[in-house]
Design a protein that fits this description.
The protein is of the alpha+beta class. The protein has helices at residues 8-22, 31-39, 49-59, 65-73, 103-110, 117-120, 125-128, 173-192, 202-219, 223-235, 241-251, 269-284, 303-315, 324-338, 342-352, 381-388, 443-447, 464-468, 514-517, 572-575, 582-600, 606-610; strands at residues 77-78, 84-87, 94-95, 130-131, 133-136, 139-148, 154-160, 168-170, 430-436, 474-476, 481-490, 493-499, 523-530, 537-544, 547-555, 558-564, 616-621, 634-636. It is built from 22 helices and 18 strands.
């Protein structure tokens, strides 16, 4: 219904008919309500023009248009919302005059200088407002004569003492009444009880048809159209409206937004709702005691499954497993994301979205992807929108413009400000190994403390240290074991990467892991870059078939060490490492990184390193033990 053009007679008659049908147990009604049900009318006789004129003369103000039109149809109303049992007509409406003594405290709070204009505009409300509630559950309905729109309408403000919030604002009396009719619908079916009459009428049928149109629009990729229809239907409490809106909001906005409350009757309870709730709780950081879904006293049929889901989400081992062709694509995409190739993972998912099938009428998108620890980071904001705009579930429509890849070419991006820490405008220190002819899961056997070294589950960057070194209390200046995240670095290459190493590069004690990494017969390249204390260090060392081939170390623009035949493309003078300032040396490092990328066809995935989860292991020390007469430091904590 358009608020500007309310057909009051038909609107109020329909509301009364629906209210009467929703109250099947007459013996539970008050005498006045029982009479209203028998008469199928919640209102009163119309107010005459003389009645309205007398009211305006008594109050000293002309009434706003929609309230006057309402009075011409019904001089008062019953059940204007769940907590207002009687609404004033022309004789009962009166100036509130701060009858409850609330004005002083509210005005002091509203009038604070740092409040927004809409809050400060409420100052004086309790003294100037026209009170429309006659009987209510401590709920005030106030017409504000100083909050007037261009159409002459006065805003309605509704406040209840048991709501810890400012008064709720409606732009007009008509808007207030439409909202109260929607509120009645949202709660009426639940008031019926199982043995009450069916709550089926023109309003419910119209809104259910709107939900069906919205679902078709959403599956066709027209999600904005669906949102408008569902937002209206949700106000009426129609089935699926809230659930479908939640799925759209999970994809059209920050991750975690719109997470639904799981319900065991929902066909998505175990496959999507519980995993998404568990992921949301994990990101919010509450204790496991909040997970009541694993309580068999509450959920006897699904408690064990819920406990398993929570544990898998917490450990990073949860897997989203939809069926059909889309499920096969999810498995393939996860394998790509597992080794950092998030762009390839999205390309697999993108191609499979049209084959996705819903689990029921309350399902319009594979939001379960957002609970999968490997695939959730793949779904960037742009890709989530692309998913929403892609036809699926048997519907057709134009394909959306594809979201671009997120992983930059080359390696020079590693030295850009904010490259590895997008939330900080600084350059990160890092070290990495690029290994040819070795799969990522083979790196621990080459570079770990023993051939049986295992990879961790996929970990978030901030969980790596806690996983590998829980409760570490002793730290040595020579025992420099790296915590390495692994993945694919391009065709035939793998990488092992550590951001912000705890140790500083020490030329005298550094032991390149390149020879160990290359014993399988390929090449290995080690890169270490740091900019601590304003003195940039850039190191490269390479090996092939277990034998060192070349190495060089630049510190503050000076060649500190070199070995072997450095390729001409990496010659420090050619790259400009002798620049007199840190920015010039950083530019030389960028040129060196891109030269390595061109020589070997390698790269590393930015999205996986900054937002994703990668498998990790702890390596052998990158520093040799101290020799005779050399000192080192050991720090013990606790």
């Amino acid at each position: 219904m358009e608020i500007e053009h309310v057909d009051w007679l038909n609107f109020l008659a329909r509301w009364s008919e629906e209210w009467a049908d929703a109250h099947g147990h007459v013996d539970e009604l008050s005498p006045d309500d029982a009479a209203a049900r028998r008469g199928r009318w919640l209102g009163a006789d119309p107010a005459t023009e003389a009645d309205i004129a007398a009211m305006e003369d008594r109050l000293g103000r002309a009434m706003p248009p929609s309230y006057r039109e309402f009075l011409r149809v019904s001089d008062g109303w019953r059940h204007a919302g769940a907590f207002v049992w009687k609404l004033a007509g022309s004789r009962e409406a009166h100036w509130h005059d701060d009858a409850m003594g609330l004005g002083e405290d509210f005005d002091e709070f509203w009038g604070e200088e740092d409040n927004p204009e809409e809050a400060r505009a409420q100052v004086g409300l309790w003294s100037r407002a026209l009170q429309l509630d006659v009987e209510s559950d401590i709920t005030f309905v106030l017409l504000d004569p100083e909050d007037v729109g261009p159409d002459g309408e006065w805003a309605v403000r509704v406040w209840a003492s048991w709501r810890a919030a400012d008064p709720e604002r409606y732009p007009s009396f008509a808007a207030f009444m439409i909202a109260m009719h929607q509120e009645f619908h949202a709660h009426a079916p639940r008031r019926n009880g199982e043995d009450g009459p069916a709550f089926d009428n023109g309003t419910t049928r119209a809104q259910d048809a709107a939900v069906a149109r919205a679902r078709t629009a959403a599956l066709s990729g027209r999600y904005e159209e669906a949102v408008a229809l569902l937002a209206e239907a949700q106000k009426y409490g129609r089935p699926y409206a809230h659930e479908l809106l939640n799925q759209i909001s999970q994809l059209d906005g920050p991750r975690g937004r719109g997470v639904e409350t799981p319900h065991p009757d929902n066909p998505r309870f175990l496959s999507e709702q519980l995993p998404l709730k568990a992921a949301d709780l994990l990101n919010s950081g509450p204790t496991t005691e909040d997970w009541h879904y694993s309580d068999p006293a509450i959920f006897p049929d699904t408690a064990q499954a819920a406990a398993d889901i929570q544990r898998a989400v917490r450990e990073g081992t949860y897997r989203y497993r939809p069926g059909g062709a889309f499920g096969e694509a999810v498995h393939e995409a996860r394998e790509q994301a597992r080794w950092g190739d998030t762009d390839a993972a999205w390309q697999v998912l993108r191609a499979a979205i049209p084959s996705w099938e819903p689990l029921g009428p309350g399902h319009i998108a594979p939001v379960g992807l957002l609970a999968d620890p490997l695939l959730a980071p793949v779904l960037t904001a742009e890709r989530r929108l692309e998913l929403l705009r892609t036809p699926r579930g048997g519907e057709s429509g134009p394909a959306p413009a594809p979201a671009g890849d997120r992983n930059p070419d080359g390696l020079s991006w590693l030295v850009l400000p904010g490259a590895l820490r997008p939330w900080q405008a600084s350059v990160s220190d890092y070290r990495m190994i690029l290994v040819e002819g070795v799969a990522p899961d083979e790196l621990p056997a080459l570079l770990g403390p023993s051939p049986s070294t295992q990879l961790s589950p996929p970990l978030r960057q901030w969980d790596v240290t806690r996983h590998h070194r829980p409760g570490q209390r002793v730290f040595s200046s020579y025992d420099d074991r790296a915590l390495l995240s692994v993945g694919r670095a391009g065709p035939g290459w793998s990488f092992a990467f550590e951001q912000d190493p705890s140790a500083r590069f020490d030329t005298a004690r550094f032991v390149s892991p390149a020879p160990d990494a290359s014993v399988g017969g390929g090449r290995a390249i080690v890169i270490w870059h740091e900019r601590r204390e304003g003195l940039p260090v850039f190191h490269v060392s390479a090996a092939k078939r277990g034998t060192p081939t070349y190495a060089f170390t630049m510190r503050g623009g000076a060649l500190e060490a070199t070995a072997g035949a450095v390729p001409a493309e990496l010659a420090p003078p050619t790259l400009g490492f002798d620049a007199p300032d840190a920015d010039g040396q950083a530019a030389a490092a960028a040129r060196a990184l891109d030269a390595i990328a061109r020589l070997h066809g390698v790269t590393v995935p930015r999205l996986a390193l900054t937002e994703g989860r990668l498998q990790t292991f702890e390596s052998l020390s990158w520093s040799r033990p101290p020799g005779p007469g050399e000192t080192y430091t050991t720090i013990s904590i606790g």
